[in-house]
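Researcher: Next sequence.
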Amino acid sequence: LGPLQNGDTQWEYEAASGVIKWGMPYVITCGNMINQPPLGFYIEALVFKIFGLSIDTGVTLVMLFGLGCIVLVYKIGKFLYGKTTGLLAAALFASTPWQLVLSRSFLIDVQCLFFSLFCLFVGLFAIRKASVKLFMVSGTLFAAAFLTKLFAVFTLIPLLLFSVYYRPKNLRRTFSLLIAFLLPVLLFSFLWYQVISGQGLLSVFQHD
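Model: Next structure:
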């Protein structure tokens, strides 16, 4: 199964190349910045600077993120239901058409999924231990996922369900944990959209 290439892969390749050329994910074919959050393109640009600018290099990076996703699915399954469930979940996930195709495609989707799963994994521990530090780590990973692709918001659903299952009783403690989780994404979003790119915070709602 070779790398998938289409208009989107070429578009994102151009954005990552723009980071190397201009320091920002500009896409000449659109005449401005790519209509996606920026982090994935900066990660790709860093890898391109080290290993060379090519689609094959980019796809190798995506494959590594895809392998990381499989490991995280195993870890989450093991945490919730045991080792056997983790192995089964990882095997099923690894064999899905979505994983097989996108892990061989130069797209930011797998990066977003990796950070989302990592956020979920750490978040499960954070909820069980009611740890402010772990909530902040999970929130930072959520910020990384969110600033890669907005689909990361769906990670909040299992985290919310798991937190409801644990039925927090101390409202003040719960509020402090929520602030610890949300602070990184609010801070980094403000820095990118308001300070660095100058697009304004509301532009986050205009991404594809």
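Model: The beta strands are 26-27, 32-33. The CA atoms of residues 51 and 57 lie 7 Å apart.
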